[in-house]
Amino acid sequence: MYTARILLCGGDINRRVQVVGRLKFRGAAERGEFVFPGNTSAADNFTLRDGSFRIFLDGTEITADDLRGILDGAADYIVFTSRDEFLMRFRELYALNLIDRCVTADTLTIYAAESFFAVANAGKIFNAIHALKLPRTLDVDGCFANCDYQMFPDLGAKIEGVLADVTFPAVENFYARIHRTVDDCRLKFFDAILLTNERTVAEFLDALIDLDALSQNVLTFVRRGSDLERWLARHGCAFEKISALPAVNGNIVLLTKFARADFACYVVTHKDAKLTALPDGYRIIHAGHINAAETFGDVTDDAGDNISRLNPFLNEITALYWIWRHTNHTHIGFVHYRRFFTTDGENFLSADQATTLLRDYDIIVNECRFGYIPLRDWKAMLSSRPLAEHVRAVVRKFIARSQPEYLAAYDRINEGFGTFCYEIFIARRKIFDAYCAWLFSFIIDATEEILATTNIADDDDPRTYRAISFLAEHLLGVWLINNHLRIKTLPIIFRDNI
């Protein structure tokens, strides 16, 4: 926990602090020259005559430069236990350019519980976010809530905050979104992470690791003379770039991590589709290879941990499982040999286009399709109503066991008219992993029960043995409508007659 180092002016203070020394002042107020700070009609109200102001530290007279030196190293604040004396000294402290380092004991108690506080710093951090073009910043420590920025409801725009408790409802007007915990925004990606609370070096590094996948940039306040300042001076090479903006008692520092973009878009196929001249980063995965007579593509879905044997019933999902278990790309796509994302209707989406879009969005999916009848009835037409209803009920049962919070979304998709088709998407790794972890927590077990309770494995009609895959391709929609993601929809190029 942050412990303020203070120069105390007045009596004792009732909170945990480190008292570096005790100050006394002698100056204009004692000569009867005090002017209340709000009355600034005279130009010399904030001008001091040479020798007109005296400062005593623990009974020894020091200069204003001595005091500034102490505040630049050993102490964070000058703390007044008497609000009247603080106001009485305002003129001299302003003239000496020390007012930013002076607070009352009450102000210290309210505003400096977790980190060094200065009104000027809050403004500098806010301005830096916009000057550096980092509008989607995640305020992990609730910096702006603690600095009274709830008084400026139109300024937050795209800034999001992490606040376990909202003390004042007005705070909700400042932030574009409030998350109760960091875990609530694990699937999102931000322009920057804002860390302002005081942390030891070990705690700061733990925070960097814990928040690593949320942004490439970390904006933080580094107190002058702190262990963190010394660590950054020694280990700056750990970051691609470090930028510093002078602030009260330290610097506002932007740490830019080394970019690590490893894009791969897997094209699922079960036959030699003559896919040539694919864009860089595209790889062909042979789905259902365990039952195939020949091999084609770059990888197969039956190496290592796999569910290739279920391909006749789950189709492309067996390839999805293999990619999840055997790759570690930072950006990952999943498309079909007949269906590819496009932005212009002619060319496949490139790696650069995809990673650029994923700076602003969390996931890319195909454009939503709307039908004239609910999805539940549409699936019944593709196979048969009894089989389709059995598949729907079994999958629902297993979702209820492992992911009960998704039941409402599952029912809504099945009873609804809109859906994302084809089970194709492109996302950052953490999105991909989260979806796969959710999907495979129930779909394999559900498939095994359906196979054990029906004869679809013995039927040669694809409308029968594909009944599970007919439903499963819409499970991405179930997951999407139950998570707070920024979704980008793109059209697809459909390759016919293959």
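Second entry:
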Amino acid sequence: MSVREIKIIGNKHTARNIILRELDVIEGQYLHRDSLRYYAQSDSMRLSSMGLFTDIHVLADSENIDGVIWRIAVKERWFIIPEPVFQLADRNFNVWWNEQNRDIRRIIVGATVRHKNVRGNLESLSATVQVGYTKRFGLEYLKPYVDRKQKHGFLLGFSVAESQETFYNTDSNKLLFVHTADQYILQQTEVYGGYIYRPAYATKHLLRLAYKQSHVEDTIVSLNPNYFQNRGNKMQWIELSYRMEHNGADNWNYPLVGTKFIGQFISRFGIQGMNFQSFATVELGKYFQVAPKWYISTILRGRLSFPQNQPYALRAALGTKFDYVRGYEYYVVDGSHFGVLRFNFKRELLSLNIRKIPLKYLPVIPIRVYPKLFADAGYVKNNEPGNSFLNNKLLFSAGIGVDIVTFYDIKIRLEYAWNHLGQKDLFLHLNSE
């Protein structure tokens, strides 16, 4: 039977063609009756990944003798979302709580006002203002489609940031900080633009060109002459990057089934304070459902960087951002090359939708809870590790934890991990893996 018509209701702001672009089904397509449920679930997951709707229902009405009527009912989110910023300057909650003594001066507060669906065409316009440990202001505009076939788009943006404290070196796999009371010790500027090509649902390409600049006070240079090259206090460069994303998972932000791939190649052309640098990064995630409500995932991340000898400011590998081996949250491991492998075995313990919420754009609050077992392994290559003892060694850990996923893609992870040093602790993270 063929899909005679696709009917969409509830999209008061979102353009019909934007929704049709995401579907696995098109009008006129022939579908076997046994496959209707599969395609309905597929379209529901695809629409959920857009991040525009709080409630989605897809129904294949096959009772009509002339063909299938594909019925889609959605409830739109609040597109103008004031996202409060409450971040810790430190790498994670445990470092702030235990090593920085819960210092409230190391908190970053502010807000990002983001319109996620300007004119109903999936355009995004955002402004960010932050104060506290780091002051930052940024603007970004994203237009995913500029053509009728909805394959080509672009983005533009800039940001400026300044801080009175920053880390300047690594000692025994710990960051060393310096603070100034009367001036900003670190200032950063970035201006960028990008071209987006999305030929099909699952694959997206981004070509990005940026000008970046970092400036530090002489205090940093005196403490670490290799912070930038040539004992300078300023680094400027042009950055050209290519990124490819393949979304073969049920949910990009918290996948349970499918494949997720991100590949990136970046070249940095130094103007001042650095030479040429080129590196490639990869992330590959495989997600399986092994039984009803039981899931297994493996995630591989890695980076290769050339040449290996770079200024200290460009050597960050494991521990400073989102790449780390669980159980080593108190450490940083610098280097040019690294790899991390993660394994998770989890079960869906709770899945419910709290309805009848007296808010127009939040009629449903979903709550998902996943207890899990996990194991990680990682390695960082560094030709000049100094007194850091975790470089050039296999790092491995294991543990138990629980993931909590709720509305607007909020994710909370509690993980109790043991590492190869015999250390163990309970760690809190507010992001995905």
